[in-house]
Design goal:
About 0% of the residues lie in helices and about 40% in strands. It is mainly beta. InterPro entries: Quinoprotein_ADH-like_sf, WD40/YVTN_repeat-like_dom_sf, WD40_rpt, WD_repeat_multifunction.
């Protein structure tokens, strides 16, 4: 989720003053690297060895996914005005029904052609990224946008969060005034099409929503609010019910993610706090805050990610620092009961066996996005300083720094399977790029937006669908544009 009003990073990169033996020295990554191939442990073994060592080289990329860029123009009619954009445009399709910036985007996990977007026009749309849903034309000619499947009204302020639940049956949208709307797929004749939707519930328990995240396996979602509260809801047979409410943060809750298959929920705040909860019991599994000098990040925390095994949480802050926390394994947590649903209260520091493993101080401005690879032990961190840093999650050393974007990096996302080395990123520089992280090579550069790219999703065919600050969503095919070698520091 991208905030419509990005925070301003405060201060400069702070030095890490550690009281442990797990200090991280980013200068170690600049040493000369050996030429031998790395031997990676699995993600499940990530906690077994964390030893600062020299970086290892990554293997070369042999395939080429490039294609030819186009100069296709498109015409939108948002807000009753004709919007004509004539620039390098690599997109194959576009959606232009929004009349203000598109702040959020989601893809249906069961119907990957079904997209949801939410914008500054107080509206969310469900639409299809399939070519048959809109008119496309030959190279160099105008085309019309994709036709909306469903227009969701009822939000009175910007729709900053959208998420489909795990079943794909429900869409959850959240706005800046705290309103949550749940919409259900009601295409009884052919639910696999996802062509019919109906609003079924509205909830408003807080004044402003900062983020929203869907549970990876159940029709459950969580959100964080500006008042610091965290809410967990379940949807069953069209009924929305509160499962948990946590009132532990002392400042605005700025990010959250499910971990360990949805068993845990990790949240961060602008007051530099991390809480990890057991979703079912409401217990606090881990808690760290600014009173611990090893954990404090000036300006607060704005990004959080969990490794695939759910054993490590990484948080990113306003000064460019990341903190790495090892969670207690299942059955060993010693944290007490949290606030629970509607009960208030707070957790006590030091009541958990979670440990700070490292501080990563490589980037110089706010960390906006964090992503663990699902299949290799790497973490990607994107920053306002325009860089993407890849960390080896076995040793917590820098594997590579990618310097390709010309403005803030907003989001990074890994792929899986045979494409496990590919990382896609979007930026306020109006581009989406795909990198081979073994070499640092830029494999694709997609253009077409006239303003920053605030988010994206990837479908099962490798297509990228974007959310633009220019009110437009674009669909980029895998072939995208001609490969360009990006600038990356690290292994040759």
């Amino acid at each position: 989720m991208v905030s419509p009003h990005p925070h301003t990073p405060a201060g400069s990169r702070a030095a890490y003053e550690s009281g442990s033996n797990n200090d991280f020295d980013p200068t170690e990554s600049s040493a000369d690297q050996p030429d031998d191939e790395p031997s990676f442990m699995s993600n499940n073994d990530a906690l077994e060895e964390i030893i600062p060592e020299d970086d290892q080289p990554m293997e070369d990329m042999s395939d080429d996914e490039g294609g030819e860029p186009s100069s296709t123009s498109y015409r939108g009619t948002g807000a009753g005005e004709s919007i004509e954009i004539d620039l390098i445009n690599d997109s194959s399709l576009h959606f232009d029904a929004h009349t203000d910036s598109i702040y959020s985007i989601a893809i249906n996990p069961r119907l990957p052609g079904i997209i949801a977007t939410g914008g500054g026009d107080d509206t969310a749309y469900i639409w299809s990224s399939d070519a048959a849903a809109g008119h496309t034309s030959t190279h160099g000619q105008e085309r019309s946008g994709q036709v909306p499947i469903f227009k969701l009204e009822g939000h009175e302020e910007s729709v900053t969060s959208v998420a489909f639940t795990a079943s794909g049956e429900y869409l959850v949208t959240g706005s800046m005034n705290g309103r949550i709307i749940v919409t259900r797929c009601v295409d009884a004749q052919n639910p696999k099409n996802g062509k019919a939707w109906k609003k079924i519930a509205e909830v408003q328990e807080t004044e402003e929503i900062g983020w929203l995240s869907a549970h990876p396996a159940a029709d459950v979602f969580a959100l964080g609010a500006a008042d610091g509260s965290v809410w967990v809801y379940g949807v069953e047979d069209g009924e929305v019910q509160i499962k948990q409410v946590f009132y532990n943060h002392t400042g605005s809750c700025t990010g959250g993610t499910f971990a360990r298959g949805g068993e845990l929920l990790a949240t961060v705040s602008e007051t530099s706090e991390l809480f990890v909860y057991n979703v079912e019991s409401g217990e606090v599994v881990a808690r760290f805050g600014p009173e611990d000098a090893r954990f404090n990040v000036e300006g607060g925390l704005y990004a959080v990610a969990a490794n695939p095994a759910g054993t490590v949480i990484v948080v990113g802050g306003a000064t460019g620092q990341c903190k790495v926390v090892a969670l207690p394994t299942a059955g060993t947590q010693t944290g007490g009961r949290s606030s629970g649903a509607r009960r208030g209260g707070s957790a006590t520091a030091g009541t958990t066996s979670a440990q700070i493993l490292a501080t990563l101080s490589t980037q110089s401005e706010s960390i906006e996005t964090l992503a663990f690879s699902p299949s290799v032990p790497l973490l990607a961190a994107g920053s306002v300083d325009k860089s993407i840093v890849l960390y080896d999650t076995q040793r917590w050393t820098v594997r590579r720094t990618i310097q390709g974007h010309e403005d803030s990096v907003v989001k990074v996302q890994w792929e899986d399977g045979q494409r496990q080395w590919l990382l896609t990123s979007c930026s306020m520089d109006r581009t989406v790029r795909r990198w081979d992280c073994r070499t640092g090579e830029e494999k694709n550069k997609w253009q077409g937006h006239s303003d920053g790219v605030l988010g994206f999703v990837i479908d099962g065919n490798g297509r990228v669908i974007t959310a633009g600050d220019d009110n437009v969503a674009l669909v980029f095919e895998e072939r995208g544009s001609a490969p360009v070698v990006g600038s990356a520091s690290g292994q040759p």
